[in-house]
Specification:
The complex is a heterodimer of chains A (about 130) and B (about 425). Chain A is an alpha+beta fold and about 130 residues long. In chain A, about 50% of the residues lie in helices and about 20% in strands. Classes of the chains: A alpha+beta (about 130), B alpha+beta (about 425). Strand 5 of chain A pairs antiparallel with strand 11 of chain B, so a sheet runs across the interface.
């Protein structure tokens, strides 16, 4: 049973999270400086999220973009990733997370996402998602 | 010698990187490699050896961090740029190229681990180093386990009967490591930090291994003598011994529960590097033969006028282009997807090493008796190329592994990537 009951819930949560990360942290600026745009293609339930320094896009709008890095994973894996409970090298090696884009850029994204990982537990409480 | 690149989309930056790397390969690597090649293996790493000045120059110019991403201080090159630079280094000296690559293996894997502490401790200082004083190595093979350490997917790989020499056991917050790694550890006797593959869970055989970073100044570490060998004599190799060496648990970056998969990833990167260096060596051999055959008069005619020489030179040229096209395509794939698609690194490595060996062989044939003498580069290229057929997994083992993957996964779906 997926943790997110539907894609709409995920879109609402992550839409707010990405927007807040860009507004309140250096995330957007650092993304732009690094020349990185990201497409998160998650499944179960399916949702495409494209993020650049201007904010997030979802669904068809996201799929029309050409990202520098694409990351594919289940929405459950994404949830645990944001809670810092995923061993990234292990998840990549086991293909639980698949990344497309220059390896250097992929490795560079991970530290950029840390401010969002700090905020994510608050969203779990708000949307009644498990943290353990 | 410059070459025509069939990729017409190279940018000014790409071309500048290639030119700078070629200048370094020609003016620094080749003379030093020639000198080191003729020295006793102990003298290669002795105080006053030209190796140390070479490393200082290489570190000053950043050639020790070609693979490292820019957020930790690496060169942050694109996959194509890595290829352009590595081909030139391979052209300059295969052995010194391998050395420069393995010196950064612990730092590179620290970045792969995504662990802040390890990145801070091992990756950033390595990238900041400009004097060659921080040197890593890749310690995987053992006296009783060579290419079988890469026997992924085979029953023996997971057999409890496969007992490794290097063992790690958890003791509180530390791992305690004992045993040894083989004389084939590149950079083994001159490194001060190792990327080590010890066995942790014997019940799983070699598959029960892990990958850790071990500072080599810890109590209990000792080293063997430098290895004396036929080729790549400029590449230092030698044993490392561990006697109850204690490392923090956090230094064990990859554990047995996903060891086979992470080994595939590491091997994928290593094999790619080998294929690119081999392209450089294949080109070096081609150029030696080409230049000689244009000048040398034999039987009243220049060699290039002979029918058989034209055929041979074209075969050699074809191999260079094949190596470059294949290794570049594999690099473009596997430096752009995580995890890498292993069979493409394997086919690039086995094909490019075989072709560079054939080119080195035919370069000697082209030069005739002169090709066997120390006066010409060809004999060194031949000896260096011979080692590539065994290095980073002998080609027969890699072919076997490639076949295993093909039977498991062919044809791959694009969704898998």
């Amino acid at each position: 049973m997926p943790l997110f009951k539907d894609a709409a819930l995920a879109q609402e949560l992550f839409g707010d999270l990405w927007t807040k990360m860009i507004a309140e942290t250096q995330f957007g600026k650092e993304l732009k400086e690094a020349g990185i745009t990201i497409l998160f293609a998650v499944h179960d339930p399916d949702l495409s999220m494209y993020v650049d320094e201007n904010g997030p896009l979802f669904g068809e709008e996201a799929q029309e973009k050409t990202p520098v890095v694409t990351m594919k994973m289940s929405l459950d894996t994404a949830h645990w990733f944001w809670l810092k409970k995923v061993n990234i090298p292990k998840a990549l090696a086991l293909r639980q997370i698949k990344a497309k884009g220059p390896v250097g850029k992929v490795l560079k994204i991970l530290p950029l996402l840390k401010p969002g990982q700090e905020m994510y537990p608050d969203y779990c409480r708000k949307y009644d998602l498990p943290t353990e | 010698m410059d070459y025509f690149d069939i990729n017409l989309d190279l940018t000014e930056e790409d071309l500048a990187l290639r030119e700078a790397a070629h200048k370094f390969a020609k003016e620094v690597m080749r003379p030093v490699a020639k000198e080191l090649d003729r020295m006793a293996c102990e003298d290669v790493v002795a105080e006053g050896s030209p190796l140390w000045d070479f490393l200082k120059k290489a570190y000053e110019l950043g050639y020790h961090k070609v693979l490292m991403p820019d957020h930790v201080g690496g060169m942050g090159l694109s996959p194509l740029q890595v290829h352009l630079v590595f081909e030139e280094l391979g052209w300059g000296s295969f052995g010194l190229s391998v050395l420069l690559a393995v010196l950064g293996f612990p730092a590179f894997c620290a970045v792969l681990s995504n662990d802040d502490e390890l990145i801070e401790k091992f990756a950033i200082p390595y990238c900041e180093c400009t004097d060659g004083s921080i040197r890593g190595c890749w310690a995987i093979t053992e006296p009783d386990h060579g290419s079988d350490h890469l026997g992924l997917g085979e029953a023996f790989f997971s057999s409890p009967d496969m007992r490794c020499s290097a063992q790690a056991r958890l003791d509180g917050d530390h791992y305690v490591i004992s045993g040894q790694k083989s004389a084939w550890v590149s950079g083994g006797t001159i490194s001060n930090v190792a990327l080590l593959h010890p066995q942790i869970d014997r019940s799983r055989g070699i598959a029960g291994s892990g990958v850790c970073i071990v500072p080599l100044d810890l109590p209990g570490v000792s080293k063997g003598k430098p290895l004396d060998k036929i080729g790549q004599r400029d590449l230092n190799q030698g044993e490392i011994y561990f006697d109850a060496v204690r490392i923090p648990k956090s230094y064990m970056i990859f554990e047995p529960d996903f060891y086979p998969e992470i080994l595939e990833t590491i091997l994928g990167f290593a094999n790619l590097c080998m294929s690119i260096f081999s392209t450089g060596l294949a080109r070096a051999a081609f150029e030696e033969a080409f230049s000689y055959c244009k000048e040398r008069v034999q039987g009243g005619r220049r060699l290039m006028e002979y029918y058989s020489i034209k055929q041979r030179i074209f075969r050699m040229f074809s191999r260079v282009e094949t190596c470059r096209a294949l290794s570049r395509a594999a690099a473009n794939l596997n430096f752009n997807v995580s995890p890498p698609v292993a069979e493409y690194s394997l086919v690039a490595k086995t094909t490019a090493t075989q072709m560079c060996f054939e080119n080195a062989h035919e370069a000697i044939q082209s030069l005739g008796g002169n090709g066997l003498t120390k006066e010409y580069l060809t004999e060194k290229l031949f000896r260096d190329a011979r080692a590539t057929l065994i290095e980073d997994g002998n080609n027969e083992t890699l072919d076997r592994h490639g076949g295993h993957i093909i039977f498991e996964s062919y044809p791959r779906s694009r969704d898998e990537i």
